Amino acid sequence: VQTLDFFTPVVNDPYDYGQIAAANALSDVYAMGGKPLTAMNILCYPLKSLDRDILVEILRGGADKVNEAGAVIIGGHTLQDSEIKYGLSVTGIIHPDRMVTNAGARAGDVLVLTKPLGTGLIISAIKANKVFGEHISLATKSMVSLNKTAAEVMLEVGVSACTDITGFGLIGHAYELAEASKVTLSFVAERIPIFDGCERYVKMGLIPGVSKLSKKYLKDAIRIDPEVREDLVDIMFDAQTSGGLLISLPKGKVELLCTKLREKGVMTAEIIGEVHKRIDVSIIVTP
User: Fold this and answer.
1) Residue 17 and residue 7: Cα distance in Å, rounded?
2) 2-97 falls under which CATH superfamily?
3) Distances (CA, A) of 179 to 29, 237, 251, 282
4) What pLDDT digit, counting tens, does each position of 10-28 carry?
5) How many CA atoms lie within 13 A of 280 on its CB side?
6) What's the confidence (pLDDT) of residue 133?
7) Averaged pLDDT of the chain
């Protein structure tokens, strides 16, 4: 299993940024039930205008997170650039018979989410200097958390399908899962875990641009009950950084999965929806 991801800073602390970028890059391997083995740094940095100590902290954060994942950084590539960008190219392994994809969801399955939504809004608030301090710490704690434990529990219990929630938001990645599995997913908006403050940031107009594009692109693939609050819809489209796993599994296994996730300290183990036979839309959202 091979994957690659990198992006510009999402928080002000360089060590945290390095950890977040690494956790985000590792997530695709975990979403498939894989084990990361090696990683290579990808770094763009303005050496002429920024202190090298910042660079060191970014790389230290990434290295610590890769070490936590049980993998090894074996090299990388650095470019002189006008803007900081950091991430990883990751190689992992998985037995073909145990691989989890986004194409296996079945009608009757239940949907479980392992991290709250809202990191995109909080990042936008940080960049606009309108964020509340406590919201930064909550979002950072989530973004630096690996999906390793959730993936291990997922494999132990046995699930139908999985995807990680990143740049296309919950709805965007759920759409990909629904299309690949040829099913329709339904979500209960009030059950979806979100970070404190996100409704306020929506009302302040701090919705990331990519979230607006996803909402526009998918408008014909979704049926939203008119009773669902618009701010919750916007949060469901919120572009996540290092988001959680959306897991589809048989109803008879969901209690075991959620219990094990909570016992092992996974941030969230919320049942947020169900899988249905395919109808005329990919996603349904109810209050």
Assistant:
1) 10
2) PurM-like, N-terminal domain (3.30.1330.10)
3) 21, 17, 21, 7
4) 999 999 999 999 999 999 9
5) 3
6) 87
7) 97
